Structure formats: structure tokens, C-alpha cells
């Protein structure tokens, strides 16, 4: 057992000695980490290893994500013949600060918080001169938003990578993959955004100040918003609120003239309940609209959810105006007792027939002979009673006509309430279906 341990220690010492010998051979006095090893083109291959979306600031139009991009390139100076050296392994792990690193960065980043200090970063060196390293960091990048379809929108954010100093004749970049699909724990979005894909586009951009072409790789991150929160918190309550408001507008609390409240100072009657209900609804809707505007950047166009709220405001406004007009018509016909037009009665009530009352004529036939003076007195009394009967008949007919007209208008306006209730609720449902995807 002791001999086995001693042999293991000797093997480790020999391996370390072989590694040190190889390192001294590679990194001699002629190698400078601050200078590009060769004037030839260096092709840097980028491989996205990790991309996890952390957050999106929609008002500032930026995204924050955790990433790790693997970089691979060839350094012709740092190669060795495996048969000519004692080090027999294919790869050699060294400190990244000991080799020349291409200045490939995320060119459109706002801030980069590296997860490893530069002194702790390592690089893998292969015998043929291939070098691999990684850039783990938390990055913030701009992401212009198109909010027309919010909250059912799909956004595309660009992550551009390339050399900061070297043009395409010295350093060029390429990607090892063209498309990346979501992978649990490696390529994914967050609780609000679903990552659909990451696609690669390679391009050469001309810098007018440097008068040079620079190689660049752009990763297009496609994100789809999860709309459940906005539907349950904003859209569904708005629909329910508008539905209840329309029911309240066209459900009269009384069938009498008390449907209108009186303002003594102006001698006016007005549907206060309907107006208060509408104003309360507008106050709640304005809070919903303010909530949406606080989430979105200040753009020239309203998002889909904002358009839905505005459309619901117009529906309720039209319903309120219709309810006020119905109430005012009810008050007018109740006080004036005018008879509804025949076409309106036929159209709304389908059958309205005016009932006429008649007073029977008083019979004057008598077979009893009476004195002339008595006949004259009776004639005067009969005439007086007949006139009184006619007056009572006319009064009863007038009262019956007023009550009948008021009842007819009440039936007409009740059916008008039901018709408006149906029409505006249908408009409410249609608007919701159009904007609810």
C-alpha cells in the first residue's frame, strides 16, 4: 500500500514537471499576450452555451439576461507535437491571462457584469493550437419593443457580438449553430416571457469613422409574452365592470317619475343614478388604463389592451347617453301625457287598440201624465243632470286616456330598455371577442 502511494506521488510530480516543461516551451520570451500572434485572419467561432432571461424593463426597452458564450479560435504559436514532448494529453488547461484573447464582446450591451474575475478565468489549449474560453456574465441590452399586440405580443431582441478593435481582415466571427431551441436550465425565458428560439445572422458592418468593415454575429432572441396575468388582472375585470354597468344603466329602479332626481336649484330633473354609475365605471377604467400605460414605453400607438379599454369606454359612454335619453323621454311623456304615435305602438307593442267608453243616454219616455209645471221643472232638472253626466264622462275619459297613454309609454320605454340592454351587451361582447385572442 505504501509503495502504491509513493508511485502515485512520483507520477503526479512527473506529470507536473512535464506540464511545466511544455508551458516554458510554449510561453517563451517571444510570446506577447498583448499582441495578435499572427497577421493572418483569426476566425473566432461563437457557441451560445447558456441564455437565461432574467427580466425585461418595458418602459426603458431593455432586457437583462445571464449568458455564457464559448469562444474558439486557433493560435498557431501555441501548438506542439505530441510525439516530441513528454506531455501526452490532448488538452492543457491554463490561465486565460497567459494567452492572447480576441476582443470579442457584446457590442450592443448597456452593461456587463462578469461572473468571474479576469484573474480567475481559464482557457483550454489543444495541441493543434485551438483555444477555447467562455464569457459568463449578466448583461443588459437594448430591446426595442413593438407593443401594438400587447399583451399577445412577440418581441425580437438582438444580441450582437464582434471584435471591438480588429476589422474583418484580422478577426472575423462566426457561430457554430444557426438556431437554438429552448432547453430547461440552459436556454429559457422567465415567468412572463416564453423563449421561442434564438437564430443567428452573420453580417459585415461598415464603420464610417474607422473606414473599415467589421465582422459581426447577431443572435435574434424571439420572446413571446405570457398574457395570463394581464387577462386576469386587467382585461377580464374590465369586461365584467362594463357588463355590470350596462345592466345598471338599463335596469330602472322605478317605473314612475321618481326615476329622475330633481335639482331644486336649477329646477331640472336628471338621471343621477345612471350618471354616478357611469362616472364610477370611468374612474375604475382610468385606473386600468393608467396601469397599462405604466407598463409600456411611451409610443405613438396604443397597445391592443389599451385600445380594448378605450373601446369599452366608448361603448359605456354610448350606453349612458342612450339611458339618459330614455329617462328624459319618460319624464316628458309622463308629464305631458301625449299619445304614442300609431307606428311606434305597432312597431314596439304590435297591438294597441284604444278603448272608448260611452255614457248611455237617459231615457225620457214616460207613460205617466204629469202637470205642465212639473214637466217644465223635470225638463230643467233632466238637462242639468245630463250636462253633469257629460262632464263626468268627459273627465273620466280624459283621466282614462292619460293613464292609458302613460301605460303605453311605460311599456314602450321598458321594451326600449330591454332592446338597448341587448344591443349594448352585444357590443360589449363583440369588442371583447375582437381584442381577446
From TrEMBL:
- Its membrane topology: Multi-pass membrane protein
A molecular function (GO) term: extracellular ligand-gated monoatomic ion channel activity
Q: Which UniProt keywords apply?
A: Ion channel, Ion transport, Membrane, Signal, Transmembrane, Transmembrane helix, Transport
User: Could you tell me which residue ranges the Neurotransmitter-gated ion-channel ligand-binding domain spans?
Assistant: 20-227
Identify the main location: membrane
Q: Which branch of life, at top level?
A: Eukaryota
Q: Where is the signal peptide?
A: 1-19
Please name the InterPro entries in this protein's record. Answer: Neur_chan_lig-bd, Neur_chan_lig-bd_sf, Neur_channel, Neuro-gated_channel_TM_sf, Neuro_actylchol_rec, Neurotransmitter_ion_chnl_CS
SUPFAM superfamilies in UniProt: Neurotransmitter-gated ion-channel transmembrane pore (SSF90112), Nicotinic receptor ligand binding domain-like (SSF63712)
Which ranges does the record mark as transmembrane? 228-251, 272-293, 305-326, 418-436
Any Pfam family hit: Neur_chan_LBD
Keyword Protein biosynthesis applies: no
The protein's location, in the record's own words, is: Membrane
What's an example GO cellular component term for this entry? Answer: membrane
So what family is this one in? Belongs to the ligand-gated ion channel (TC 1.A.9) family.
- Name the UniProt record assigns to this protein: Neurotransmitter-gated ion-channel ligand-binding domain-containing protein
Amino acid at each position: 500500500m505504501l509503495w502504491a502511494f509513493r508511485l502515485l506521488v512520483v507520477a503526479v510530480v512527473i506529470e507536473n514537471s512535464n506540464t511545466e516543461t511544455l508551458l516554458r516551451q510554449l510561453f517563451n520570451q517571444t510570446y506577447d499576450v498583448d499582441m495578435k500572434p499572427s497577421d493572418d485572419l483569426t476566425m473566432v467561432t461563437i457557441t451560445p452555451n447558456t441564455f437565461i432571461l432574467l427580466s425585461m424593463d418595458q418602459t426603458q426597452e431593455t432586457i437583462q439576461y445571464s449568458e455564457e458564450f464559448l469562444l474558439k479560435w486557433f493560435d498557431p504559436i501555441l501548438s506542439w507535437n505530441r510525439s516530441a514532448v513528454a506531455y501526452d494529453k490532448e488538452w492543457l488547461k491554463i490561465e486565460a491571462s497567459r494567452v492572447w484573447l480576441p476582443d470579442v464582446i457584446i457590442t450592443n450591451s448597456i452593461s456587463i457584469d462578469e461572473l468571474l474575475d479576469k484573474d480567475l478565468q481559464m482557457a483550454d489549449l489543444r495541441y493543434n493550437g485551438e483555444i477555447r474560453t467562455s464569457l459568463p456574465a449578466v448583461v443588459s441590452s437594448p430591446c426595442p419593443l413593438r407593443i401594438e399586440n400587447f399583451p399577445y405580443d412577440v418581441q425580437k431582441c438582438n444580441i450582437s457580438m464582434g471584435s471591438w478593435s480588429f476589422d474583418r481582415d484580422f478577426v472575423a466571427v462566426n457561430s457554430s449553430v444557426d438556431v437554438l431551441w429552448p432547453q430547461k436550465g440552459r436556454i429559457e425565458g422567465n415567468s412572463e416571457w416564453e423563449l421561442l428560439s434564438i437564430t443567428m445572422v452573420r453580417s459585415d458592418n461598415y464603420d464610417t469613422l474607422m473606414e473599415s468593415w467589421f465582422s459581426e454575429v447577431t443572435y435574434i432572441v424571439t420572446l413571446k409574452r405570457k398574457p395570463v396575468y394581464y387577462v386576469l388582472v386587467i382585461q377580464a375585470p374590465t369586461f365584467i365592470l362594463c357588463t355590470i354597468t350596462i345592466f345598471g344603466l338599463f335596469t330602472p329602479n322605478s317605473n314612475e317619475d321618481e326615476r329622475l332626481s330633481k335639482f331644486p336649484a336649477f329646477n331640472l330633473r336628471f338621471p343621477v343614478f345612471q350618471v354616478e354609475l357611469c362616472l364610477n365605471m370611468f374612474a375604475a377604467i382610468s385606473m386600468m388604463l393608467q396601469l397599462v400605460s405604466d407598463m409600456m414605453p411611451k409610443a405613438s400607438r396604443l397597445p391592443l389592451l389599451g385600445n380594448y379599454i378605450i373601446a369599452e369606454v366608448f361603448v359605456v359612454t354610448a350606453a349612458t347617453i342612450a339611458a339618459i335619453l330614455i329617462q328624459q323621454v319618460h319624464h316628458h311623456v309622463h308629464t305631458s301625457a301625449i299619445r304614442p304615435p300609431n307606428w311606434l305602438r305597432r312597431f314596439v307593442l304590435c297591438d294597441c287598440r284604444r278603448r272608448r267608453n260611452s255614457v248611455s243616454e237617459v231615457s225620457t219616455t214616460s207613460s205617466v201624465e204629469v202637470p205642465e209645471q212639473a214637466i217644465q221643472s223635470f225638463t230643467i232638472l233632466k238637462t242639468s243632470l245630463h250636462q253633469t253626466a257629460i262632464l263626468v264622462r268627459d273627465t273620466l275619459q280624459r283621466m282614462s286616456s292619460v293613464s292609458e297613454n302613460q301605460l303605453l309609454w311605460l311599456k314602450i320605454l321598458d321594451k326600449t330598455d330591454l332592446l338597448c340592454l341587448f344591443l349594448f351587451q352585444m357590443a360589449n361582447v363583440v369588442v371583447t371577442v375582437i381584442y381577446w385572442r
